[in-house]
Specification:
It is built from nine helices and four strands. By secondary structure, it is α+β, with helices and mostly antiparallel strands. A hairpin with a 5-residue loop joins β1 (103-111) and β2. α4 (88-100) crosses α6.
């Protein structure tokens, strides 16, 4: 009798649980009498790319802007960015190149045993700095190098028409100091002038222009 009563009791509990579960399921959102309750989907999680979000966002903004900028605005953005990277002495040199044409430039190097050009100890020294009246005359090689790297100026081969100015240049303090650091000094003569791009930028930015 005890075993039969136990089985009967378990059956009643199971039936109660089944009925109760069904009744509760009908109270859930989306439940119906025809099937089991529907589960609401969990909200999607935002995926963050670690460490690269700011760069990706910036590139996205640039790409979006590129689709909207006209030719005039795009040019102004480019020229404005370049001007923001210049220092006053470099602006003076660019103005001088635009006005006066080519200037002599030299690299000071150590001559090899076979007579070739070896280690360069001073690059892009030029008389353009004195003509421009820059404040830091000893930084002219740095200024010239930066203008060339920005595409505003360019280096050409030696210009025979500047022969007298080359002689003046090798007596420059920065050049003389560089010569004193090598045993067999030699000079690589070049000519510095404004580039085509530099001339276009200057035409657009010349304070004396319209």
């Amino acid at each position: 009798m005890r075993t039969r009563d136990l089985v009967y009791g378990v059956g009643r509990v199971a039936g109660w649980a089944a009925r109760t579960g069904y009744e509760l399921s009908k109270r859930l959102p989306g439940a119906s009498d025809d099937g089991p309750p529907r589960l609401e989907p969990e909200p999607a999680r935002t995926v963050v790319v670690r460490g690269s979000d700011p760069l990706r966002a910036r590139m996205g903004r640039l790409l979006a802007e590129s689709a909207e900028l006209g030719r005039h605005d795009a040019r102004n953005r480019l020229y404005g960015t370049i001007l923001a990277s210049l220092v006053p002495d470099e602006a003076r040199i660019l103005a001088t190149l635009a006005r006066d044409g080519a200037f002599p430039a030299v690299d000071v190097a150590e001559r090899t045993l076979l007579g070739g050009v070896g280690r360069v100890v001073l690059r892009n020294a030029s008389t353009v700095g004195k003509t421009a009246g820059v404040t830091l005359a000893d930084h002219v090689p740095v200024y010239v190098t930066r203008l060339v790297d920005l595409g505003l100026a360019e280096m050409l081969r030696e210009d025979p028409a500047l022969s007298t100015q080359y002689e003046v240049l090798v007596a420059d303090d920065a050049v003389v100091e560089a010569v004193s650091t090598v045993h067999r000094p030699t000079f690589v003569r070049k000519a510095l002038r404004i580039s085509r791009f530099g001339a276009r930028l200057w035409q657009a930015c010349d304070p004396a222009g319209e």
